[in-house]
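Backbone geometry:

***
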Amino acid sequence: MRVLLIDDETDILEQAKIFLEKEDNRLDVETAGSAEEGLEMLNSSEYDAVVSDYQMPRMDGLEFLESVRKERDSDIPFIIFTGKGREEVAIKALNLGADRYLQKGGSPKSQYRVLADAVVQEVDHHRTELERERARKEWRRTFDALPDIATLISPSHEIVKINKRGAEALGMDREDIIGKKCYELVHGRDEPIEECPCTEVDETGEVDVGEVFEEKGRYYIAAASPMLDENGEVEAFAHTVRDITERKEMEEELRESEERFRSIFEGLDVAVFVVLSGEQNYGKILEVNPAAEKLLGYSRGVLVGRNILDFVSEEEEKITGTLGDGERKHFVQKKVRNDGTEIWTEVSLVPFEYGGRETHLSIQRDITERKEAEKELRKLEREKSLILESTDEIIAYHDTDHNLIWANQAYSEATGESVEEMKGRKCYEIWLGRKESCEGCPVDKALETGESERGEMSPPGEEKDWLVRGSPVRDEEGNIIGAIETTLDITERKEKQKKLDFKTGLLDDLMDNIPDIIYFKDEDARFVEVNQSKAEEVGEENRESLYGKTDFDYYPEERAEKSYKDDMRVIEEEKPVIQREERHETPEGEDYWLEATKVPRYDDEGNITGLLGISRDITERKKMEEELQKSERKFRRSFEANPDPVFLLDRDGVFVDVNQTALQVLGFEKGEIVGSSLWDAPFFPDETMKKTTERFERRKEGEEIPPYSVELETKDGERIITEVNVGKFEENGFEGEIVIARDITERKMAEERFETFFEELGDAVFVTKLDEEENGEILEVNPAAVEETGYSKEELIGMDIHDLIVGTEAEKNTRHKERLENGETVTYSNKKRRKDGSEYWDEVTITPINYGGEKAALGINHNITKRKKEKEKYKTLFNQLTDALFLESTDGRILDVNKAACELLGYDYEELMGMSVDDLVPENAPAFLPREIDKATRKGKPLETVNRRKDGTLVPIELRGRIIELEEEKRMLVSIRDITERKEAEEREEFLHSLLRHDVRNKAQVVEGYLELLRETNLSEEQEELVEKAIRGSEDGIDIIEKVRSLREISEKEKIEEINVGKIIKNVISERESQASEKGISIEYEGCECKVRGGPLLEELFSNLIENSIVHSNCEKIFISSEETEDECIITVEDNGCGIPDEIKEKIFERGFKGGDTGVSGLGMYLVKQIIESYDGGIEVKDSELGGARFDIRLKKA
């Protein structure tokens, strides 16, 4: 483990490196003399841990830590290793990201042993955390990859976690979702829904899954599972939601499909059996079609209920488990018919859900005739082998080194050697007597490319032309193991070819100028001629490359096999294929469509010689057809999914369609509406019919009709108010109108309620324009505004609201205009003038609204004239105070300040008004600081912090605040005092103490460390005694420094809190036990569970008491016990030593008193008393019944 150790004391660095590497040989320690050097080393090398001193020049340990954590964004284990520091330093270090805060002190060997253990533990922990973080990231990636909405929900229904899909579904950022109640956020309710799966799981402890229907017309499956803590209690619910609307729609389609399936099932000419596929009743027949009855010769009544395997021939091995694995199967079986005859069947098993049960469709076809044909085919295969031996074409099989393995009779005759004589020899040696293969050899190429290759060869000295083909041979794993060579004498064909060149040239010109794909194939479906379009389609640069090849050389096997069978049908049955549409896929995975035509070709004597194929690319046409179909489906989905009633009218005003929403809202059946017209619609009251038909006629004449409202009447006689929007609709030759009728009944009622509120509100209300050109024009007022201003309503409407506002108060409206345009609500006060010239103050709350389709501002004006006059009374006194005063709202908005506040922070009064107190917090302040300020203000306790002035400088302050009632509202009154001078004095004092604590203490520890290293060498008795005295002297010096530090901490008024005194005592015993054991002293402790009011110095108190007994009492046993009274906890520390004489019992607590030769600083017991008194406690010394001294310590109970 590589460790970087930083300290400004070179001696400490050298000593620490020696001790640490001796304590644990896994540690490799490198040192730096400053934080700056440490940063450079971290930038240039990798380390497993950092150990740093706190007090260092230029950059201290905390600044170094902050740089490592923030600037380098590093989480490397970081340990602060320093002299005993203040508690706030330790807290700050831990808040900045230190992993440990260890204090130097005691024996160098023991303290470096503790440090070495800490380094190893933190490195191991860090490595473990890195692995955990990797696992957490993997979990988060998996969580976010789920297609369903996934959440973790607490037992109180707060959302704890939500995945990416869930946040997208809610249309919110995850940060805005976490912590919200799920039923409030998702369902808009004040309590969980009745069918809430989390509530069900909480009650039963079992997984709950159920369907939920939403009012918006969507279906969901909601599932919840309990997540248990270590005690088996539910700590959260894993909640998933899947939108199954499409599935529900598919189920409806499936029902209709099942009806179609039944008719198809009955009409199929192949036998179909529906059989069970589960473990129980395996193979039981549930249903058959007429073709199945015909296949086996039994009626449906006999077959249903029997097992499908009962009809398998006894000599045929029955296939066990075929139906049970839920997979598609295809096999052949022999069956026995009712009349005893045996037939061969081709069986296809397809998994199928039938009536909610797991089944298979067993589709069976009688292939008895085909089996006979296959038997005949095997005979033909044997004959083919004989033909291969008797063919004139020269055929041989070579290994990858051209060694001959097999050849046919024609090969033997052509070379004049027997096959046995040629086996194992090279082909080029046999034919030409060469020592290497021929240039351009097709066999070589086939072995190299893995593809079939061919070429024409003319051996030297011969007047013959040979067509040589090489085809690779592969083993089961696809590895090339050899090649088939076929050689054909094409001398005669070459001569004929020359004669055909002229005609072929003409044909080539014709074919290459036709964009359609044209090809000719022989009787074996090999290409004999193609045009350039065909060559480009298969990726060849020239068309000659296709000659002699088949579809298997260019297309996937499935397509090539299908094409081959198709070609054979055309050739064998002599039936053409005309303009058949085919869908194919490019190598890049893109679909394309061809319109294919294939016709047989004949020679002059009428014998079939192959076929002619023509294919035309119709991809664009198919895309247009698909887009049209998608458009139709999209319209239908949109039509049915619209939450408003939608109607489709033809050109004569007749209803030709209506969506489901309209039927649900009106209560009619579809047949009652479709076919009716605007003149006799069953849901039109008379006035609606007149209004609707009149607008219909106007639209027919070309007039644009804006949306209008009409009443519709449901089948139950209820009237609803709707807003009607009409648009033209054209689709596949149909012309008409689409009508959307939105229910606005609630909106109309709300408008009526608002109008009543508007008229009866006691505060003046103004509705004004909110746009660039005419901002402030009054559009509407209520009666209270007329009464308040003295103007009539007619006079006010059309006025500019700013004409009512006095002087510069109108500028406030302008300043807040941008906030209003951003949709914010603004509150402020201004002065207005009535028609008679009198003036009054208003508190104005303005909200942006939509008024008749225009941007407007709704201003509610509350008269605060009386309140303003009362406010002026305290303003003079407020401004005369020397401390800065702030009057704040409960949310931290500044409402008022005095003159001292403006001078302290450098702001004008107007600038501070409306600011938040958070605006005064330094930008780099800890995130918790605003909370601490708010907490101190509300509790009325002083808090030392800093504020940021307008110019960016920081000022240290002491802040006090309290909550007051002002004008029946809660406000916060905060006073701030500049404590710059006090802070500077404290810093000077702290520097002097730090010099003692850090520099002097470090030097003493270095001396002690080297003395301990010296003690481990070979010394004489006299030398050992001198070293021991030097070590004790060094330890005594360090002890004095520690006690001075403790006395300073007492004066700093540490934080008092509830302390478990038993835990403190146990810690001290653990620290002092080894020291006591060295002197043969045992420490007994009865235990104490009392909680007292105290602080960290309690540990110093008991440490000094126990140390006092160990060092001065000459005892064998120290006994610690406790008892409780109503208000106090009394802890007794006593020993069986020499005791304390009565004449010095009271003196031992005096500063500087030394008890004989064993006394060191004279501060130990003085420090004990000071600590106890700082906690309002007391201490008394007595003679112990054990024979030694007894100390009773009284501490206040918490």
